[in-house]
Amino acid sequence: MRNKVLVTVLGICTAVCTVIADYAYTGQVYDERAAEIQRYSELNADPHTLYCGYTVEELGEGYEKPDTIFGKVLLDVPVISQYPELPIGCEITSAAAVLQYLGFDADKLYLADNYLIWDDNFTYDENMVSHGPDPYKVFAGDPYNWGYGCFAPVIVDTLNRYFADAAPDYEALSLDDVNAADIEKLLNEGVPLIVWASRDMKPYNYRKPAEWLLNDTGEPFTWIGNSHTLVLCGYDSTCYYFMDCDDKDEITPYLKESFLNRFEENGSQCVAVKINKE
User: Fold this and answer.
1) Residue 56 and residue 189 in contact, taking contact as beta carbons nearer than 8 Å
2) φ and ψ at 66, to 5 degrees?
């Protein structure tokens, strides 16, 4: 008789605990969804935005999702310095770090020598007006010596040339105008992001010597001084975390507002890698 009572009591306790646990989990999921909806609303962002035709969840397919510890997400992106070999090569160094995170044996110098297309053909005409390459099409300068740099389309092309040789199942994409809510969702999916901002998130400067006419179109162009490329690899409630190749020894936090301001001013440029393995 006692055993029957004990079994009954244990059954009731188990059922009650299950209901309580289910209620708590449901409440947690509800709170998370409510917070996400509020965040999109505050950013005036569309939660159904597609990037190159993909949802955030589709971009995260094939990645290992990181743990969230007390609201902090951090991807294990290796820290690589662009120095001393590539004083102007933050873009290709960031690309190498993302490839290494994905498991490729990709060296920054190997990428610069074999896949990055650069053009250091800067000249002056008879009126002493400078002419030079388009950073949206090639690396403007020489990453080993001097120059300016390049923008997202060049790194997309560089990575895709590498993937064509090494791993056709991978594809680099430019995520134009990605919003902060989707940035954090991508990090939740395990996707590191190559982004264009500034050194130490300090203000940009606009200098006359950094202006030239593009060689192929003749259009005027101004390079933003203090521009810098990093790998965004984590976040918490106040900061984003970066693999900053500007001679930093470890993953570096910068305030969210500081990054988002520099990011937007530099065209909201962002590159991610899509894994297309079935």
Assistant:
1) yes
2) -80, 165
For residue 109, the one-letter residue type is L
pLDDT tens, position by position, 213-254: 999 999 999 999 999 999 999 999 999 999 999 999 999 999
Tokens of 110: 């190997």
Task: Give the position of tokens 């009731």.
Answer: 12
Peptide bond before residue 84 is cis, with ω within 30 degrees of 0: yes
Q: For residue 118, what are the contacts with CB-CB under 8 A and spacing of at least 6?
A: 138, 139, 140, 141, 142, 143, 147, 150
Token code pair at residue 213 = 């006419």
In 3D, which of 72, 36, 48, 15 has the Cα closest to residue 253? 72
**String of DSSP letters for 234-254:** EE-SSEEEEE-TTT-SS-EEE
Alpha-carbon span 236 to 73, nearest angstrom: 6
- Radius of gyration over every alpha carbon of the chain, rounded to an integer in angstroms: 23
**What span, in angstroms and rounded, lies between the C-alpha atoms of 209 and 45?**
37
Cβ–Cβ under 8 Å, residues 189 and 220: no
Given a contact cutoff of 8 angstroms between Cβ atoms, the answer to whether 225 and 207 are in contact is: yes
**pTM to 2 decimals?**
0.86
Residue found under tokens 């008789």: 1
Separation between Cα atoms, residue 105 and residue 1, nearest integer Å: 68
Are the CB atoms for 103 and 264 separated by under 8 Å? no
- The answer to whether 194 and 94 have CB atoms below 8 angstroms apart is yes
Compute how many other C-beta atoms are within 10 angstroms of the C-beta atom of residue 31.
Answer: 10
Cα torsion 196, 201, 203, 205: sign: negative
